[in-house]
Amino acid sequence: MYRVVETFVRNCLTCIRHQKTPIWDHPALTLPIRDVGDRVQIDLVFGLPSKESQEIARKYFEYISIFGSSKELLSDQEKEFLNKMMEKLIKLSGTERLNKAKMCKSSHWNPEQKFLLEYPICKVNLRQNSEDLTPSLEEQIKDRTRRGIKEYFVKWADYPVSENSWIRESDFVSMECIDQYLKSKIDQNEINTVRGARSLTHLRMISTFITNLLALGPFCTLNDHSPILSTSRLCSYNTFESNFHSELYNVLEKTQFYLNGYRFICTRDKISVRTYETFFGQRIHEKMVANENFLEMNV
């Protein structure tokens, strides 16, 4: 009967799956001692002449001289074991110092004190709630499509800019942040489209104005020293019709000869032209006419 049960258990998949067998390399087990003297524990079990660091170091040196140095030295947190002299002696002998206990290599014997920041040797329980471990997103900067997979470049809250990273769309827990990013991207595209249309309208207005100016022909520049009659720069603004007509004399230009004869009084009108451009790009001319003092000329 025993053999029948043993044969059935060996061939039963359910029994094999749930069979409890010892695990030799389980992480919760303490590290085994492979040889004699690998780990040495030191403590005070009877009275000594003194508990000073020199006395403890001398006794430990005598032990090393007889049995040799060990790989590990286990002791408590007493001052006679934790001092500079013992630290130097342990360092020279090549021994690893262990303070306490079974689950952690370095821990305080008093649980009210603060534990050292080390990972325990034993296996700890897994966290059931991972929401507090997930960093929150501050903003999404840009997006891309890589090998057919949509990715977003995100800024993590309470982290520097150097920690920014690309995250796949499938890795997001909630799609709300993605919807907000896409909506802001659409709004920005609409704003850029309106700005581009305005810029194009301004360029068309400027080109139309330049075309009209070229169609009008050349302009003349007038100032206080502009001559009345200039053959090199003849312009409609520079030519004036006189109301005085003489049957005997026609004045065309000055000559280098001295002429003797009748005296005539001539007048000249001063015209000032001011040009400015409006907000919409339209150029406007203003003319101001003022009578100048009479000029006397001997002809």
UniProtKB/TrEMBL annotation:
It comes from Brachionus plicatilis. Transmembrane segments: none annotated. Residues 135-193 form the Chromo domain. This is Chromo domain-containing protein. InterPro entries: Chromo-like_dom_sf (IPR016197), Chromo/chromo_shadow_dom (IPR000953), Chromo_domain (IPR023780). It comes from the Eukaryota.
